[in-house]
Amino acid sequence: MDIKSIEKVVSLSKRRGFIFQSSEIYGGLASTWDYGPLGVEMKNNIKNLWWQDIVTSRRNVVGMDAAILMHPEVWKASGHVQNFHDLKVDCKNCKARYRVDHIDLSKPCVRCGKTDWTEPRQFNLMLKTSLGATADSDEVTYLRPETAQGIFVNFNNVVNTARQKLPFGIAQLGKAFRNEITTGNFLFRTREFEQMEMEFFIYAEDAKEQLEYWSQERLNWYKKLGVREDKLRLRPHDKNELAHYSTACYDIEYEFPFGWSELEGIADRGTYDLDQHNKFAKKKQIYFDQVNNQHFVPTVIEVSAGVDRAFLTCLVDAYREEEVNGEQRVVLKLSPKVAPITVAVFPLVKKDELPEIAEKIFTEIQTEYSAFFDIGGSIGKRYRRQDEAGTPFGITVDHQTLEDNTVTLRDRDTMEQVRIPADKTLSELKKRLQNA
Ligand code: GAP
After folding, report:
1. Alpha carbon distance 305, 313 (integer Å)
2. Where are the beta strands (DSSP E) in 192-350?
3. Ligand 1: lining residues by beta carbon, under 6 Å
4. How do residues 308-349 score in pLDDT, each as one tens digit?
């Protein structure tokens, strides 16, 4: 896939209702996107698969859902007010703004071709907002730049109520906001995005082992989403890349058309965050270890993924252009776990009772899988639409159904069509989806 293909993915996303530009009718708002009918289903599938993998399937991880707005002191304690900066430069000629680590200052501006840079300046990435009904009482706070702090400030609340003992994790999924200087590459870097984060609290001596364990677990999760293995890698951070809170970190990266880029960080945050809140807040966040009969601040291994980046990865990874009988077919080879629609049901024509039979099959399938009923247009066009939506299976009711009570089951990837008994449609789908 070349660099231009990201535009093809953007175009398909709009054409099929995965992603729309935000506020499009007003000319759009830079780097903000809306998820359409197919997009929201696929995004929910990804979030559910994460929750299932991290929370529901484990005994020692619990979930929570904190408010986006937090006390402004949180961000002083966390170090974000002081340290959450990017170094930026502006081109004096065309006013384009760049992150210093994204460009070579000895080379001309890629937009206007002139080499005339401002001095590099620090730029805080947090989005400010103010609370309060009157100007006098306004209090400045921030839209959270990461969901993690909502977990740290609730550490004791969770320990006291969820009856967890070390090692255990607290997971959260939700919106985060950053006033990114450079945005672009579609959903990859936006100002409003969603994170899936889990803070795993451990004994300090287990940090190295737990960092390795979670890095592998998380890499495997992307493989389970159906992402091609040779497009994924785990990269340890150099010392100079580490965030202000972290002592060791791995990135999971995907090879996008614009190069290898980060999907997720797995970091050893040490005791940094709880220590900081213990300095700034009135109430202490401390763990009582019944085994050794002592109080201490546990070490944290964090897994922090972006929902939108996982979504973009699935889309880009699944996008294929194939030639079929001299015509081009665009198909999203999405895993059935991720695909927004699992099965599409088509009556071949709008008459001869085919719609009624198809409707009955559709209603049965819908009790277990996400299904779509499509009655309009030629069957070839309907198949192509579902190929672009990434729908793994199609069921077609035709005139032969009236004779022998069979229907056609079409496989998206092979385009193979087989006849199966109409009353066995759901069980046949189940069989195929079990191994998917
Ligand atoms: N709590 C740690 C943390 O926030 P991060 O590496 O800054 O670490 C974690 O962010 C993940 O959040 C990233 O790996 C990425 O998937 C996602 N993310 C961060 N900034 C983003 C942005 N501007 N747009 C989309 N996703 C973003």
Report:
1. 12
2. 192-202, 232-236, 248-256, 259-270, 287-289, 294-296, 299-306, 319-324, 327-332, 343-347
3. 146, 148, 178, 180, 189-190, 193, 195, 197, 262-265, 302, 304-306, 308-309
4. 999 999 999 999 999 999 999 999 999 999 999 999 999 999
CA of 145 relative to ligand 1 center, distance in Å: 9
Atom index in ligand 1 nearest the CA of residue 304 equals: 9
User: Which atom of ligand 1 is nearest to 183's Cα?
Assistant: 23
The model's pLDDT over 122-142, given as tens digits with 9 standing for 90+, comes to: 888 999 998 886 656 568 899
Q: Which atom of ligand 1 is nearest to the CA of 251?
A: 14
Beta carbons within 10 angstroms of residue 290's beta carbon: 7
- Ligand 1 atom closest to 148 (CA): 1
Peptide bond into 355 cis (omega under 30): no
| pTM of the full structure | 0.93
Nearest to 169 by CA among 252, 273, 51, 54: 54
- How far apart, in whole angstroms, are the C-alpha atoms of residue 150 and residue 161? 16
Q: Of all atoms in ligand 1, which is nearest to the CA of residue 146? A: 4
Q: Mark 151-174 as b/e (b = at least 16 C-beta within 10 Å).
A: bbbbbeebbeeeebebbbbbbbbb
| CA 311 to ligand 1 center in whole angstroms | 13
**Pocket of ligand 1, candidates 170, 244, 304, 313: which has the most ligand atoms within 8 Å of its Cβ, to mutate?**
304
Joined together, the tokens standing for residue 405 give 């009570």
Q: Report yes or no: 61 and 202 within 8 Å, Cβ to Cβ.
A: no
Pull the structure tokens for residue 396.
């077609």
User: Which residues make beta-bridge pairs with 394?
Assistant: 344, 410
Return the closest-CA partner of residue 252 out of 280, 227, 284, 287.
227
Q: What is the pLDDT of residue 283?
A: 93
| d(C-alpha 126, C-alpha 68), whole Å | 13
The answer to whether residues 84 and 124 touch, using CB atoms and an 8 Å cutoff, is yes
Chain-centre distance for alpha carbon 27: 26
Cα(102) to centroid of ligand 1, in Å? 17
Residue of 46, 179, 180, 193 with the most ligand 1 atoms within 8 Å of its CB, for mutation: 193
Pairing mode of beta strands 259-270, 192-202:
unpaired
From atom 17 of ligand 1, which residue's Cα is the shortest distance away? 306
Query: Does residue 336 contact residue 435 with C-beta atoms inside 8 Å?
Result: no
Q: Taking a C-beta distance cutoff of 8 angstroms, is the pair 147, 176 a contact?
A: yes
